[in-house]
Amino acid sequence: MPYIRPAATPHEKSKRLLRGYDITASKLSYILNCSETTARSRLKNPGTLTGDEWLKISRRGHIPVEEIRGVFMS
To answer: Tens digits of per-residue pLDDT, 23-56?
Structure first.
């Protein structure tokens, strides 16, 4: 039987971007100024991140805006 790759989740690219920059729940809670529980839920489902939160991640997390745009444009 051939192997069928499971379908990618809708926000897999944004998860990969945050993991690539080593953004953990504790770092994200500092960046967003929220509790660690909230940050962990945002990491599990990056679709819940707002535009303002992505801007904070860009500024405080030192992720270039172009890379964040690239995630949503492709």
So the answer is: 999 999 999 999 999 999 999 999 999 999 999 9
Mean per-residue pLDDT, 9-32: 94
Is the CB of residue 72 less than 8 Å from the CB of residue 47?
A: no
Q: pTM of whole model > 0.90?
A: no
Structure-token pair, residue 41 = 């839920």
Residue 14 to residue 71: CA distance in whole angstroms? 6
Structural domain includes residue 63 = yes
| Tokens linked to 57 | 């991640």
Q: How many residues does the chain have?
A: 74
Q: Measured on CA atoms in the order 55, 15, 24, 39, is the torsion positive or negative?
A: positive
Domain extent, residue 51, equals 22-73
User: 30 in a domain, yes or no?
Assistant: yes
